[in-house]
Amino acid sequence: MSSESLNTELSKKTSFLGLKLWVLIGICVGAFIILILCILSLWVTLRRKSRRTLDKYPLSQIPNVSKDITVDRVGGQNFHDHPESLFLTVHDKSSDRNSEKMLVHLGMSKSSDADNISQCSSIYHQERGCSSQSGEEGSSGTILKQSSLSYGLPMASPLIGLPEISHLGWGHWFTLRDLQLATNRFSSENVLGEGGYGVVYKGRLINGTEVAVKKLLNNMGQAEKEFRVEVEAIGHVRHKNLVRLLGYCIEGVHRMLVYEYVNNGNLEQWLHGAMRQHGALNWEARMKVLLGTAKALAYLHEAIEPKVVHRDIKSSNILIDNEFNSKVSDFGLAKLLDSGESHITTRVMGTFGYVAPEYANTGMLNEKSDIYSFGVLLLESVTGRDPVDYGRPANEVNLVEWLKLMVGNRRAEEVVDPNLEVKPATRSLKRALLVAIRCVDPDSEKRPKMSQVVQMLEADEFPYREDRRNRKSRTASMEIESMSGSADLESKIEPSESHASESNQRVRGSTD
Ligand SMILES: Nc1ncnc2c1ncn2[C@@H]1O[C@H](COP(=O)(O)OP(=O)(O)OP(=O)(O)O)[C@@H](O)[C@H]1O
User: Which end of the chain, N or C, is less packed with Cβ atoms under 10 Å?
Assistant: First the structure.
């Protein structure tokens, strides 16, 4: 066929709307191309979605995962030591029952534990939220919503205004691009600090929320482990004195954690570092920070199941907001402990000077180890000294030993931080020392629980006078008290007996 006759054929009008043949062919080809493009883009979107869902499973924070995941022990170890076990076991779907199971498993309160409920009501209610019944604390995202509503609390959330599609059960799934935008491409100007496992950047999300983004170092599995542990330990919990994990980013080799931004430095900076330029932290602020820290630990140890042992309580991990509320951070070394487990045996990790002696010596870990570290933190705050300071005379290098020496020589009043402009009231100083000495008792069994520490720090009266007597007589009868134990030292801090009985009477009088 010649080109002329082809032209004539193509220019002929068809019966379809009287369009010419070549126009009709053009429309058909165009429509076909558009159809192919639509199918392609639909396929890409679906693939992305399904990859995301798959990626999310291993973190075990996501509802609808297999019940297999409750088998979280491998050879008696926490599954953090074997994160691969999660990858192997999680492959399932959906049943409401399983979701519930996950919530219980991953950190709902021990509502059946009567003992705990009473502590819960005495301590956690004050913070607006006993985990089992109220408020924000101790809940999964789902429970949080219900309880917040039932309390008529405002639902203000740092995540409002972010794409719905990226909401996890408890937080937000960020893309690398989201976080690049938030941190000005991880610019050095935004660096807040660098820890052992990564660099922390300040950022601002598209909804205006200020955040801290921890970009974990890509160090052969360690980042992955730290990442999982943090998500596992604090992703689903809420407490006023715990830094809130808002979400995370997993993309390629990148692992990032996104936290609420805490704007007033950390305790280490206030006691020994850059924040000192604002003046020495006063006594009341120190005690407020310590009390908040004690409450956070009481919550982790006693109000949730499995309990969380932080393992790295130290001043640089206590963030401070502008009202001097403390926010415990850095859960990269945390371990979860089921009820019924008295301890786990694990590699000794932590920071020199804060690690409990029994854990350092045997690797046997439980919450008592955090309590020891808390005692060191309290002594550090009272004295303004580092837990270990080689710049000092030999008998002062180790803070705990020096403190015991000073108290043993009845020189307790001399240990207070010389930088404090206003010295604390004697009663308040002694209370803090007494609590600290109990917490660093070499016998871990004799250390108080964190809920007791909270009560002691909050008490107006000298703490637990009766209890202390009982402890002393019990210990004496067992004839195992050593000079380094706390009971002997406590008597050196205690006010005189006449004063003691006077105040006891006063307390009794007021309760009769
Ligand atoms: N949510 C946050 N808000 C504000 N600053 C933060 C936040 N999280 C961490 N930082 C700061 O970032 C810095 C690094 O913190 P990171 O917890 O990674 O390490 P570190 O505690 O200093 O060291 P280590 O690795 O020994 O624990 C610290 O100065 C810390 O105060």
Answer: C
pTM tops 0.80:
no
Bridge partners for 181 per DSSP: none
Give the ligand 1 atom nearest the CA of 198: 18
Ligand 1, pocket-test mutation among 192, 216, 322, most atoms within 8 A of CB: 192
H or E element in which residue 249 lies = strand 245-251
Distance 274 CA to ligand 1 centre (A): 14
Q: How confident is the model at residue 266 (pLDDT cuts 50, 70, 90)?
A: very high
In tens, the pLDDT along 77-103 reads 332 333 222 222 222 223 332 322 222
Question: What share of the chain in percent tops pLDDT 90?
Answer: 43
Using DSSP, state whether 242 is helix, strand or coil: strand
200 & 349 share domain: no
Residue closest by Cα to atom 13 of ligand 1: 193
Question: Which of 260, 274, 250 minimizes the C-alpha distance to 202?
Answer: 260
The whole domain housing 382 covers: 265-459
Atom of ligand 1 nearest to the CA of 214: 18
Question: Does 215 belong to an annotated binding site?
Answer: yes
Any idea which residues carry the catalytic annotation? 312
Q: Are 309 and 369 in contact (CB under 8 A)?
A: yes
Domain check: are 426 and 282 in the same one?
yes
H-assigned helices in 57-167: 84-89, 96-105, 114-119, 141-150
Answer with the residue of higher pLDDT: 153 or 325: 325
Q: Which of 13-17, 45-49, 320-324 is predicted least confidently?
A: 45-49
Instruction: Among 239, 260, 281, identify where a domain stops.
Output: 260
The CATH number linked to 184 is 3.30.200.20
* ipTM of predicted complex: 0.97
Contact, 155 vs 148, CB < 8 A? yes
Mean pLDDT of the chain: 73
Q: Is 436 left (phi over 0), alpha (psi -120 to 50) or beta?
A: alpha
Q: Which residues line ligand 1 (CB under 6 A)?
A: 192-197, 200, 212, 214, 243, 259, 261-262, 266, 316-317, 319, 329-330
- Contact between 130 and 112 (Cβ < 8 Å): no
Look at 58 and 186; give whichever has higher pLDDT. Answer: 186
Across the range 414-424, mean pLDDT stands at: 96
CA dist list (Å): 194 to 188, 234, 282, 385: 11, 20, 27, 23
Is residue 253 assigned to a domain?
Answer: yes
Identify whether the C-beta of residue 239 lies closer than 8 Å to the C-beta of residue 295: yes
Residue 30 domain-assigned (yes or no) = no
Better pLDDT: 502 or 401? 401
Domain total in the chain: 2
Q: What is the DSSP letter of 144?
A: H
Final residue of a structural domain among 413, 433, 459: 459
Q: Can you tell me which residue has the tokens 């140890």? A: 301
* Residue 233 located in a structural domain: yes
Residue 403 resides in a domain:
yes
- pLDDT-based confidence at residue 477 (cuts at 50, 70, 90): very low
* Preceding peptide of 306 cis, ω within 30°: yes
